[in-house]
Amino acid sequence: MRELTYSEAINEAMKEEMRREPMVVTYGEDIAAIGGNFGVTKGLLDEFGAERVKDTPISEDAIVGLGLGAAMIGVRPVAEIMFSSFLGCCMEEILNQVSAIRYMSGGQVKVPLVVRTVNSLGRSGAAQHSGRTEAWVMHTPGIKIAIPSTPYDAKGLLKTAVRSDDPTMFFEHALLYYQVKGNVPDEEYTVPFGVADVKREGSDVTIVAYHMMVHKALEAAEILAEDGIDVEVVDPRTLVPLDVDTIVESVKKTNRVIVASEECERAGVCGEIAFRIIEEAFDYLDAPITRVAASNVPVPFSPPLEEQMMPKVDDLVEAARRIVY
Fold it and tell me: Is 215 considered catalytic here?
């Protein structure tokens, strides 16, 4: 085991997959010459050359369109959209083309395309650079979604995504890149899609959380432990496919559940997970399902205002106390 940052784990996954498979290529805005906006692709150009690591124009539509075409002829592209807010610029490609072509061709044409992108709430990026758009894609059949919270999961899930014959949206988080470190094995490994991870076992209340909210949930669990409330934290790791079974088993054990996300509260991933719990485990609930998410407002530039609209550790603590006591 070695301790890597989230960023280093993603970088290592890319290098290993590009060494393993010559048809893996990567491109996006500033990913080659300067190693990416956050330094995640640093060193790839030096090792693999300009034929496999390319800077692109500032055109998300062109980036995804190029990836789609390349994937259809047997290349395994890993495209980067610098911020997930910018997925709106290429949503036609994702919604009507990337997601549908394998189905429309009766399986004759595969689209082994990975689109890496970054959620960045908490950096004072304002409304146009703080997107959390995973629910958009979750609503689009035909695309897998990975959304890792730890270096171990980030590396293993990215390797799985690159090897998949289906398109994958790979959501990273800007604050996780250098704030979070974790143990990563020296040996080869992958993390399967559709298998949640129980990050902390508990008996009183379940918190289902992903991305940055996993770490806030773990912090909240430590605070709540001082009150005698034992929290279980379940990280889905992938939203499509979603491991409903692991979530339901946790709820059956604790009988109470909070679903947490950084996305805005309305019509999002939290609502989908909550409804699946109602379908599968309603009779086990001793309290209403509670949702902790961001306010339904555009993200402000002002750091204090951004902090106000973001879901916080204190929100999770308050929600747990409310449904336990």
Answer: no
60, 68, 158: which is closest to 110 by C-alpha?
68
Other C-beta atoms within 10 Å of 47: how many?
12
**DSSP string covering 242-262:** --HHHHHHHHHHHS-EEEEEE
The answer to whether residues 5 and 177 touch, using CB atoms and an 8 Å cutoff, is yes
Selection from 253, 144, 267, 127 nearest residue 194 by Cα: 144
Query: Nearest 5°: phi and psi at 80?
Result: -120, 125
Structural domains of the chain in order of their starting residue, each with its CATH number = 2-184 (3.40.50.970), 197-324 (3.40.50.920)
- Catalytic annotation, pick one of 129, 173, 211, 215: 129
Pairing of strands 181-184, 231-235: unpaired
Burial of 73 (0-12, 13-18, 19+ CB in 10 A): exposed
d(C-alpha 198, C-alpha 208), whole Å? 9
58 Cβ partners below 8 Å, 6+ apart?
29
102, 110 Cβ separation under 8 angstroms: yes
3-state secondary structure of 171: strand
Helices first, then strands: H and E counts in the chain: 13, 14
Euclidean distance between the first and the last CA atom of the chain, given in angstroms as a whole number = 41
Q: How many CB atoms lie within 10 A of CB 313?
A: 18
Q: Tell me: the pLDDT tens digits for 271-308? A: 999 999 999 999 999 999 999 999 999 999 999 999 99
Do the beta carbons of residue 36 and residue 80 sit within 8 Å?
A: yes
pLDDT tens across 164-215, in order? Answer: 999 999 999 999 999 999 999 999 999 999 999 999 999 999 999 999 999 9
Residue given tokens 């059949």 in the structure block: 141
H/E stretch holding 202: none
For the sheet containing 114-119, what is the strand order? Answer: 53-55, 24-28, 76-81, 114-119, 168-173, 144-146, 238-240
Q: What is the chain's percent helix, strand, coil content, to nearest 5?
A: 40, 20, 40
